[in-house]
Design a protein that fits this description.
The complex is a heterotrimer of chains A (373), B (301) and C (363). Chain A is of the alpha/beta class and 373 residues long. Helix content of chain A is 67%, strand content 9%. Chain B contains 10 helices and 14 strands. Chain B has 301 residues and is of the alpha/beta class. Chain C has 2 domains: 237 residues, no CATH class; 99 residues, D-Maltodextrin-Binding Protein, domain 2 (3-Layer(aba) Sandwich), CATH 3.40.190. Helix content of chain C is 67%, strand content 8%. Chain C contains 14 helices and 5 strands. In chain C, strands 2-1-3-4 form a 4-stranded mixed beta sheet. In chain C, helix 3 links the parallel strand 1 and strand 2. The chains are: A alpha/beta (373), B alpha/beta (301), C alpha/beta (363). At the A-C interface, helix 2, helix 4, strand 4, helix 6 and strand 5 of A face helix 2, strand 4, helix 6, strand 5 and helix 7 of C. Strand 5 of chain A pairs parallel with strand 4 of chain C.
């Protein structure tokens, strides 16, 4: 029985590196794709809705009603335009030409003057969930402003209760600060799972695994040798996103590099192991990609709390999300960028991450060894 | 040295309920070119996989170089064999030198020994090109020769070649067989499978597999002699559209292109004369292909 | 025609013989739809709320009780820390901090001031917390103190098409559109790449069939598979999430067919660049990713920078997502249909023309 050989491991590792550096596609995937993703996603994810198309019908046609519409128009949020008939408004809502319709009834000004209140009808396009709640919030703001404007009162705060909201860690509610740290998880997952699953499948598919096994090399040596370069690539991917976050999107980094890098390395290990498991199950690149997308990427994007908060999910799905390392990694990454908790505050996600990785690694190695026999 | 290098006794390999190899026994002598023939799915590759330690035997014993196969001893065996698989030979994306470095590391060759072996082997195949060429840029024949060198790098006493010349041009094939003969002369044992019957003629002995069973094992000459007691004839129609002779006259009547190989049931001059009207009849020595067809068909009957 | 039929048959048989692949194609999407549409929700729950005030502050207690009763918020286990520290340490999502002497007393004095402290690491969450709390507080004030802090003008708001703001209704049409794109692109381009890798493509080219036969033979079976797939997903939507189908079924099928043109053309076009399956898949990931992010399927297009909005307008997935969502939820009219199908067909024709031209030269 030969013992673990560093030399053989190094040889596999070196061979893999050479393959990577001579294959422009893999390199592109590992280095260019992360940059592309972070640039596009960073710009595309914006939850502060702007320029909402607002179709209005003014049956009142008084100064008050015009002031109401003006108030909508003077905010950045709405772009009012006039329509003649309610059917036109309905059509525009149906065809997404408008997100919202406003109907001011004939006696609006009269009501405002006599009862100091007025009735206005609003219709929203509920088919677009992503913007409705933001619009509803803006409506509250506009409501007060319009009231003071119509009453000719200065918009001073003579309200009985002044509510001051302070947003901790992200005072301006900048969507980028929130999205970009989460993207690191997505990219590391993408590079680690896909490339690992593919490279091991390729070894099966082209039959070179058999050649390797006819030599004295051991399964662990093949694994370490093959996985190490991809761990390195994934780590590069991480740095690309990190630098983009810091210098392109100006996300602050308040935490400790040690914690973030430690968590990243753990996370990479976990996804390498997942890629390994996938390749062992599928043996074929085409199938592996399907599995990698479904087991690896979708949960990472959607079940990790990256965008959709985990607390909002039904308990069963909170449980499912805890099966994926991404959930804990996103938690740590976001924390380190914006909050900077100490290690002792993060022991829960760290422990969870470590346990998952050990389990995944064991499954991967065990399954891999078993298929060799 | 007189002991056989490979000794297989009652080997069976079963996948589920399917026997890929069924109760096969044979021995391979040192320095011999041992041809392993059979149709696709006859169990050739499975047998080789067992002999290289890639696949455990379901039943039976296997000795390689006096070492009995048991679990945990695979690595000892793996040092004694070289293996060139049918599907994969060299990594395409890296250079010749890098492929060789890689193999050397896998076998833990020390630097001096590796360099010496490499020089020897490259001289052996007479390779003088640049070693930094990428494998994907090599012609098929050269690629196979380099692959042979790579699998010989750790100087194993026996080498398994699974269809080494499949898809290689005829001229390169001939060259490759020269190398194989050379190897055997230097004392290496070569265990080779092939589809080309003309190549099989180069083997010292031939084993013939059919549906997982060994159906024949002998030298090519003995196989021919054993299989064909009578004279084999080449029968060629003199013109197109001649009616075929009555098949019941023959033991064998096999088409080979526009010719036929035939063995008479009872050879008489009158039948010959009768046939000579439409056909040219020439006595020929049987080829291995004839043997192959006859043996396999004989079993089928 | 018969060569084409034979070709299609061959592809379908090969697919049927590969159970792992078939499972990946047909079952995984359904699992995905069920899981994802359940898990992804914009509806808040389990937000951890702490308050910081003196013990007998009635108004503050009312606010707290209302918040817990709303189902959006939940209690935090008793802490040693102050409310601010709890938010800072990540043990609470939001803290309500009353002025000195409690909220009730300060309101009576007429100088009410209340601080809300929100953990804004998740912007979406922070926004909804703000909204909910504002609503709850003004509700309590009206009820308890008979003072209105809000809404002097009464907006009677109606939500059209999805009155309960059901997130699944919003997501399932989009997910089905994305999955159709994914299965078409993956299956077609990888299957062509596989033939190239195995060298079998040469047999095809050497056979007396035109490249149109090859392309159609390679695409039609997978269009069929994608079609089945889409139906399964819609059935899941109807079955599990009571999603009604308001539009014309014919329109729905026609939209699918129109979308198949750019989708399959892209797959074939990609296949002309790739020699191995690995390359094909890397290309696919990039294309699918871009198409998905810039489609408005999940992130509203209106919020993107202008240049990305333009790019997303030429993205076929944008129009297909619009079509599917609109037909299902709103019962789209023919003019809406015509506009988006027009864009699909136009972009499809352009991509197809490029793909066909390249297909000839590279093979």
């Amino acid at each position: 029985m030969t013992v673990f050989s560093l030399r053989r491991t190094k040889a596999v590792c070196l061979k893999e590196f050479k393959h990577i550096f001579r294959d422009p596609f893999t390199l592109m995937m590992a280095l260019l794709l992360p940059l592309l993703i972070v640039l596009i996603l960073g710009n595309a994810i914006e939850f502060n809705v702007k320029s909402i198309e607002l179709a209005y019908m003014d049956h009142d046609k008084t100064q008050s009603s015009r002031k109401l519409i003006e108030t909508f128009g003077s905010s950045d949020y709405f772009r009012p335009y006039h329509i003649e008939t309610p059917t036109k408004g309905q059509d525009d809502l149906a065809a997404e030409r408008a997100k919202m319709m406003l109907v001011i009834p004939p006696n609006f000004e009269k009501e405002m003057m006599t009862a100091r209140t007025g009735n206005v009808q609003i219709m929203l396009d509920g088919a677009d969930n992503s913007s409705v709640s933001a619009i509803m919030n803006y409506l509250n703001t506009v409501n007060n402003l319009a009231f003071y404007k119509i009453q000719g009162l200065p918009a001073t705060d003579n309200k009985p209760l002044k509510i001051k909201t302070r947003y901790l860690f992200n005072p301006e509610l900048n969507s980028r600060w929130f999205a970009v740290p989460g993207i690191t998880a997505l990219i590391v997952a993408l590079v680690a799972i896909m490339l690992t699953a593919l490279t091991i499948c390729k070894e099966w598919e082209q039959g070179s695994m058999e050649m390797l096994l006819s030599t004295p090399i051991r399964a662990t040596e093949i694994l370490i040798g093959k996985l190490l370069p991809y761990a390195g690539l994934s780590f590069c991917g991480f740095w690309i996103v990190f630098l983009a976050a810091r210098f392109i999107f100006n996300v602050p980094f308040n935490g400790s590099y040690l914690i973030l890098i430690g968590a990243t390395l753990l996370f990479i290990l976990g996804y390498l192991a997942m890629g390994l498991c996938i390749s062992v199950i599928s043996h074929e690149q085409q199938v592996a990609v399907q599995y990698a997308a479904v087991i690896g990427l979708l949960p990472t994007a959607l079940l990790s709390g990256f965008i959709f908060p985990i607390e909002y999910m039904p308990p069963v799905f909170q449980g499912i999300s805890a099966l994926f390392p991404a959930r804990f990694y996103v938690e740590i990454a976001r924390d380190q960028f914006l909050k900077a908790s100490s290690f002792s505050d993060l022991w829960v996600p760290f422990t969870a991450l470590s346990i998952q990785i050990i389990v995944l690694m064991l499954i991967g190695i065990f399954k891999f060894k078993r298929t060799l026999e | 040295m007189n002991q056989p290098i490979v000794s297989v006794k009652n080997l069976s390999v079963r996948f589920g309920t399917f026997y890929a190899v069924k109760n096969v026994s044979f021995q391979v002598d040192r320095g011999e070119i041992f041809g392993f023939l059979g149709a696709n799915g006859a169990g050739k590759t499975t047998t080789i996989r067992v002999l290289c330690g890639l696949l455990p035997a379901t039943e039976g014993t296997v000795f390689i170089d006096n070492e009995r196969f048991t679990r945990g001893k695979e690595n000892l065996i793996k040092q004694k064999v070289g293996y060139m698989s049918q599907k994969f030979t060299l990594y395409d994306g890296i250079s010749i030198a890098e492929n060789m470095d890689f193999a050397a590391a896998l076998h833990h060759l020390d630097k001096k020994r590796y360099e010496q072996r490499r020089t020897e082997l490259l001289r052996f195949i007479d390779f003088r090109e640049d070693l930094s060429l990428l494998v994907r840029d090599l012609p098929g024949g050269i690629k196979q020769e380099i692959a042979l060198c790579v699998s010989l790098l750790h100087d194993p006493p026996i080498i398994f070649l699974d269809e080494p010349t499949a898809g290689v041009a005829p001229k390169a094939r001939a060259r490759f067989w020269d190398l194989i003969r050379h190897l055997a002369q230097t004392g290496k044992t070569v265990f080779v499978t092939t589809h080309y019957m003309d190549e099989a003629e180069n083997c010292d002995r031939i084993a013939l597999m059919r549906a997982g069973e060994l159906i024949a094992l002998d030298t090519p000459a003995a196989l021919k002699k054993k299989t064909f007691q009578g004279q084999l004839y080449l029968i060629t129609p003199k013109r197109g559209n001649v009616p075929l002779p009555d098949k019941s006259l023959f033991e064998i009547f096999e088409p080979y292109g526009r010719h036929y190989h035939a063995l008479f049931k009872k050879e008489t001059t009158s039948i010959q004369k009768q046939l000579a009207e439409n056909f040219n009849i020439t006595p020929i020595a049987p080829s291995l292909e004839d043997v192959f067809i006859r043996l396999v068909e004989g079993k089928d009957r | 025609m018969s060569t084409l039929l034979g070709f299609i048959k061959k592809e379908l048989i090969a697919l049927r013989r590969d159970p792992i692949m078939l499972a990946a194609i047909l079952i995984l999407p359904i699992v995905q739809v069920i899981i994802l549409s359940q898990a992804i929700t914009f509806e808040a729950r389990n937000l951890r709320l702490v308050i910081d005030t003196i013990p007998d502050d009635t108004i503050m207690t009312r606010v707290y009780d209302h918040a817990l009763g709303s189902g959006w918020f939940k209690k935090v286990a008793p802490l040693q820390k102050s409310a601010v520290e709890a938010v800072q340490a990540g043990e609470a999502d939001v803290a309500l901090i009353a002025p000195k002497g409690g909220l009730t007393r300060s309101l009576i004095r007429g100088e009410g001031e209340l601080q809300i402290l929100i953990d804004a690491t998740n912007v979406l969450k922070a926004q909804s917390i703000e909204g909910y709390l504002q609503g709850i507080i003004s509700g309590v004030l009206t009820q308890e103190m008979h003072i209105s802090t809000h809404n002097p003008i009464h907006f009677s708001t109606r939500l059209l098409f999805n009155p309960e703001l059901n997130t699944q209704w919003f997501l399932i049409p989009a997910i089905s559109a994305v999955l159709v794109l994914m299965s078409l692109l993956t299956l077609i381009s990888v299957s062509i790449a596989r033939e190239k890798e195995n060298g079998t493509i040469e047999t095809l080219i050497s056979a007396p069939i035109s490249k149109y036969d090859i392309i159609l033979g390679k695409t039609i079976p997978y269009i069929f598979v994608a079609f089945v797939n889409m139906f399964l997903i819609q059935t899941v939507g109807w079955f599990f999430f009571d999603m009604s189908f308001n539009g014309s079924f014919l329109m729905f099928v026609l939209s699918f067919m129109a979308f198949c043109l750019p989708a399959t053309a892209t797959a074939v076009w990609l296949a002309t660049y790739t020699k191995t399956q690995q390359q094909a898949m890397l290309g696919l990931i990039i294309i699918i990713f871009l198409a998905l992010m810039l489609s408005g399927a999940f992130f509203p297009r209106e919020n993107m920078p202008e240049i990305l909005q333009w790019i997303s307008y030429i993205n076929p997935l944008t129009h297909y997502t619009y079509l599917v969502r609109n037909i299902i939820l709103k019962g789209a009219g023919w003019d809406y249909f015509a506009e988006h199908v027009g864009v699909l067909l136009l972009s499809g024709t352009i991509i197809a023309a490029i793909a066909l031209k390249r297909f000839k030269t590279t093979l």
